[in-house]
Automatic annotation (TrEMBL):
CC cofactor: FAD
Enzyme class: oxidoreductase
InterPro entries per record: ERV/ALR_sulphydryl_oxid_sf, ERV/ALR_sulphydryl_oxidase, Sulfhydryl_oxidase
Name of this chain's protein: Sulfhydryl oxidase
Organism: Eucampia antarctica
């Protein structure tokens, strides 16, 4: 979720949308929001303590790297350049990888052994198979920030059209059964209701057609019927 947030905040169109809504959000403010969310709502106490200690001590240089002003106000996006906006996503990616490595080392220590280089590299995201252009060396200690950002954007904010799901035969049979429940002998309940109402409507029209109840020929018939029953 935090990665999605940092990627979304890097898009100039999202920054401009917020600007028109009265919110001018900088990369630093987004990082502060993540920090405050973790401080108040993160369930893992150990994780929360580690993150706050890292952040409050300018971990991974965020206090110098992240702009205090909305990047769309400072940059010219005609050449698709938004390095300051991307820095937030790269910074949080570095933080997350550092957490993965720390957890891998702690797990090895709990088993009274040293962590291997292969294990450290396996803890890093993405793997070389997932993005071979992201890493600049075999030990995965240096990276290309532009390539990493492109990968993160495709991974966490993919451009996908809404998939149209086809109904299986089982689903179609269920729909047909539901339709049959709403019918009576093949006639929809709505039509049955109309057929029942029509005689009443016709009777009412005939009853009040002349505008005078006493002059209607139907009323004497009703009176005679009532006398016979009595």
């Amino acid at each position: 979720l935090f990665h999605i947030l940092t990627i979304g905040a890097s898009f100039p169109e999202n920054q401009i949308y917020g600007f028109h809504k009265g919110y001018v959000i900088s990369p630093h403010e987004v990082a502060e929001s993540i920090r405050n969310f973790i401080a108040n709502f993160f369930g893992c106490e150990v994780c929360r303590r580690h993150f706050l200690d890292m952040y409050d001590n300018c971990g991974h240089g965020h206090c110098k790297r992240l702009a205090n002003q909305a990047t769309f106000l400072k940059n010219d996006f005609s050449n698709n350049s938004n390095e300051e906006g991307r820095e937030l996503a790269i910074w949080f990616w570095e933080v997350h990888n550092d957490v993965n490595i720390r957890l891998m080392k702690e797990n090895a220590t709990s088993h009274h052994r040293n962590v291997t280089t292969e294990e450290v590299n396996a803890a890093k995201f993405p793997t070389t198979n997932m993005c071979h252009t992201c890493w600049l060396d075999k030990n995965m200690e240096q990276w290309d920030s532009n390539e990493v950002y492109v990968f993160l954007k495709q991974w966490y904010w993919p451009k996908r059209e809404v998939a149209v799901k086809t109904l299986s035969q089982k689903s179609l049979r269920k729909i047909n059964l539901d339709r049959q429940k709403n019918t009576t002998e093949g006639i929809p309940l709505g039509i049955c209701g109309i057929l029942l109402v029509i005689p009443f409507v016709v009777f009412t029209i005939l009853l009040f057609r002349d505008g005078n109840h006493k002059s209607s020929k139907i009323l004497p018939f009703l009176r005679r019927t009532k006398r016979r029953k009595s």
